[in-house]
Write a structure and sequence with these properties.
This protein is an all-alpha fold. Helices cover about 80% and strands about 0% of the residues.
Length: about 220
Amino acid sequence: MREKIAAFLDNDSAFGRAMGKCGLLIGANLMFLVFSFPVITAGPAFIALFTITLKTLRGQDVSPVKEFWRAFKANFRQGMVIWLIFLVIVFIAVTDVRFLVDSTGFLKYFKYMVYFVSGFALVIFVHLLPVTAAFNGKLPRLLANAFYFAAKNPARALFCAALFVGPMILTYMDLRRLPLYAFLWVMCGFSLVALAISKCLIKDFNRFLPEIENDPEEP
């Protein structure tokens, strides 16, 4: 009986591997919350989180603390630029929609163009984060790569965008269970979202990534 319990709890058992992955996701999620707390640093924190989820899906052993810190530092500048550009787009889109909703006549139909442009920007942003985590390069090249992976499978691209914003929207739609949702977000919510998006993209990413653990290459 002891041997069976020991085998069940062993790190190489199915249970041990599952618990190890849970611990990794929780650790990465807590690191993300700490490093994105000022809000303005959320860009590099997202990229670091995607670095961990992508490497995990590729079967690489990573430490959530060491790997997150390494990726955060390595992508800090580009992550900040990406995040600030995204925040500016969100601000402009929200301002325009508020103005256009209250408008009358032909002008009010321009809000649909704002929706389209905002949706397109969201899709590219959601792909740009994991692309920056997986591949080296300057921002214009990374943008081109993000557009490539999004355009390669438009249905998947929309699904990834929905995965990114959908759970957050649903959280605020059910205020009665907000404490429960807040607990889940703190424990593993952001890392699970990053893992799901990474799972959608990893097959295409693997075509351009080295088989061995090495510096990522550009597609």
